[in-house]
Amino acid sequence: MGRKRVFSGIRPTGPIHLGNYLGAIKSWIQLQDRYECIYAIVDYHGMTTPYHPAEMRANVRELLIDYLAAGVDPERSILMVQSAVPEHTELAWILGTVTPIAWLERVPTFKEKAEQHPDYVHLGLLSYGVLMAADIVLYKAEVVPVGEDQLPHLELTREIVRRFHHLFGVRIFPEPQALVPQDTARIMSLTDPEKKMSKTLGPRSLIALSDPPEAIREKIMKAVTDTGPSGERMSPGVANLFQLLKIFGTEEEYRSLRAEYDAGTLRYVNLKRTLADAIIRSLEPFRRRRAELENDPAYLERVLRDGIRRARAIARETMAEVKEACGLLRDEPGLGEAGVAAAAGSKAAGEQAPEAVERR
Ligand code: ATP
Ligand code: MG
């Protein structure tokens, strides 16, 4: 029995930020020892919100560099690009035929994105959750390390799996579980701290792992707070900064600034200066590794080729089972004569064919 599988992905919609790292990638790295992990650059998902085709390939490359620089290890994990493994969309189509539209209309990210881009509400956006379900179950993944915003998608995935099994009378897929970090499942935007930090909310609202030190300092200094400690509940902007300080600062920095806040004497400029220094310090090794990888296109290509090949081998196996269960033609080399003949009910295809038709 092989190791259990993990699947997760990020949209190539811009450089990864602290939310992506703390919500997802940090867990990805920890899981690499115990699981067979597949980490995807989900470019088809990237197409569901407005984007520039001319930037897509560069974004995919940058995201690959981000993964590697953050510590995803291609020797242990599979790094791949969604559109390079056509089984993702093939399976999404099939799962789409068992997914009631009402399930998709109530997914919160659908509603949010539809509000954000009212001129860009299309079938692909509605069926985002079906494609995501396909991404996960194609590899029979059991664990999906993600931020909190993805929980409804995981619930939907489990519902789709149950319905597929029920309708076709099979048990092919595990019901995947989300793995959400305890304290960092939802990092908030710096400019609008009621919303989560997101790549598509613009560069000022986030700290990218690849941001140069001056940019990090400037953005933290401009982060939205409030007019000062008021003795009431901490405002979301300040809470977000303290949360980041807890992760990136020293224990002493956190403890003393928090004590000042509680005493009502904290000047936010001091909190921000300390936090900016701490983040800059912590991201230094990432920036160094990133610069090395930028200069090694041959290595990047090797990593992707290898990852796509390994992913595809798993994907093909699952699709053979799925097609069998659904009564579709088998995926034999060049659509093997036996498969086609079987579908046509021809006897010329040999003894196997008619029996195969009946079994379906
Ligand atoms: P986009 O705006 O393009 O949707 P995003 O920042 O939301 O970008 P995704 O590619 O949608 O990033 O998500 C990648 C992973 O990062 C997911 O597992 C998601 O849950 C996680 N994630 C995204 N934003 C945050 C956040 N603010 N806090 C914690 N986790 C996050
Ligand atoms: Mg998102």
From TrEMBL:
Record-listed L-tryptophan binding positions? D135
Where are the residues of the annotated region Disordered? 340-360
List compositional bias (Low complexity) regions by residue number: 340-353
UniProt catalytic activity: tRNA(Trp) + L-tryptophan + ATP = L-tryptophyl-tRNA(Trp) + AMP + diphosphate + H(+)
Q: Which GO terms describe its molecular function?
A: tryptophan-tRNA ligase activity
Per UniProt, ATP binds at: R11, P12, T13, G19, N20, G147, E148, D149, I187
Locus of motif 'HIGH' region:
12-20
Q: What is its EC number?
A: 6.1.1.2
- Its predominant location is cytoplasm
SUPFAM superfamilies xref list = Nucleotidylyl transferase
The record's keywords, sorted A to Z, are: Aminoacyl-tRNA synthetase, ATP-binding, Cytoplasm, Ligase, Nucleotide-binding, Protein biosynthesis
Cellular compartments annotated: Cytoplasm
Q: Provide the function of this protein.
A: Catalyzes the attachment of tryptophan to tRNA(Trp).
Task: Describe the family membership recorded for this protein in Swiss-Prot or TrEMBL.
Answer: Belongs to the class-I aminoacyl-tRNA synthetase family.
Subunit field text: Homodimer.
Name by which UniProt lists this protein: Tryptophan--tRNA ligase
